[in-house]
Every structure is written in C-alpha cells, then in structure tokens.
Design a protein that fits this description.
mainly alpha
C-alpha cells in the first residue's frame, strides 16, 4: 500500500483538503458556534445525558428494560438459528448457492453461465422480432463465444487470472503491503 500510486494520489488530495480546512472560514465559524453552544448548555442535565459517558443512562430504568428486550430478541434469534442449522444442511437452495459461489473460479463460471443465457435470450428475442443482424445480436454472439471459451478452460481459468499481467497490475494498485516506510 505504501508504494501504491492511487493511495499516494489520494493522500495528497486528503492532505491538501485538511490544510485548506484548517485555515478556512468554515472551521472558524464552526468553532465559534461550538463554543457558544457549549457555554449555553453548560451544566444542563439534558445535554449531559447525551454528551457524557453512558454511566448515567446505564443506571436508568428505561435503559435496563431496553437492554433486556434486546437480549431477549437476541436469544430468540439464536434459538431460531440453532433450529435452522440442520435444515441448512438439507437445503437445496443454500447448498446450490454455496457451490456456485464457494471461490472465485466458481463465481466466474456462474457469472459466465448467466451471461450465456442472457446472450441467448437477446438473440432469441431479436429473431422473434425479425431482427437478424444487429449490434445486439453480434454482441451476444461475441459474448457466447467468450463464455464458451471460459467454460472450456474450466479450472485453468484460475491459473490464467493469477498469471495475467493486466489483472496483477490492477490488483497491485490496491494491494496492501506490510512494512515499508509511511511516506505520508
């Protein structure tokens, strides 16, 4: 992250915004309003409830009732969750979602199948309307060919993605590196 061009650029923008705010009329006006409100509400029980620690609120009857209601609701949902765990193992829907999205390769294959069916639907729709050669049909044919190539590659798609210079470059822009000097 310390060598990231994007992060360096964003940090420069942030530092410029901070320095502009520190010397701005908006900050001076905000501090003036804050000081006036602080003087007006000094000693107020109402504002001390919202500005002090929660010690005052934690000892109130309403807070205790509220806490017990929330604890009761959490216990109910915990019991429902425990009751549904055996059903989860038998659920066709949940098991299908787990298998479709268990890793990025399965995610890519699932997305590719969706795109294939979408492209086939566009072609069928165009043919039904009597449009045989349009941008949508040509684009759909390209998507179908690319989708079939991706499905043919199957598990090798992971190796292709990991060894791709373009994808590695894009990931390196946002990569969080451990160590190094903090330049900001």
């Amino acid at each position: 992250m310390y060598n990231s061009v994007i992060v360096r650029f964003l940090m420069k923008i942030w530092n410029a915004l901070v320095s502009w705010y520190e010397n701005s009329l908006v900050k001076k006006l905000g501090n003036t309003i804050k000081n006036i409100l602080g003087k007006l509400t000094h000693g107020s029980v109402f504002t001390s409830i919202f500005s002090d620690d929660l010690d005052i609120m934690e000892n109130t009857f309403i807070y205790k009732v509220y806490g017990r209601i929330i604890d009761f609701i959490n216990k109910i949902f915990g019991k429902i969750n425990n009751g549904l765990k055996p059903a989860k193992e038998k659920s066709i829907y949940i098991n299908t979602m787990d298998s479709l999205f268990k890793n990025y390769i399965e995610l890519i294959k699932s997305f590719t199948v969706f795109i294939l069916f979408f492209a086939i639907g566009v072609i069928v729709n165009s043919f039904i309307r009597g449009i045989f050669l349009s941008g949508a049909v040509i684009g759909s044919i390209v998507l179908i060919v690319l989708g079939l190539i991706i499905l043919y590659l199957d598990n090798r798609i992971g190796d292709i993605i990991e060894n791709s210079w373009v994808i590695n470059f894009v990931f390196s822009i946002f990569k969080v590196e451990e160590g190094g000097d903090q330049w900001w």
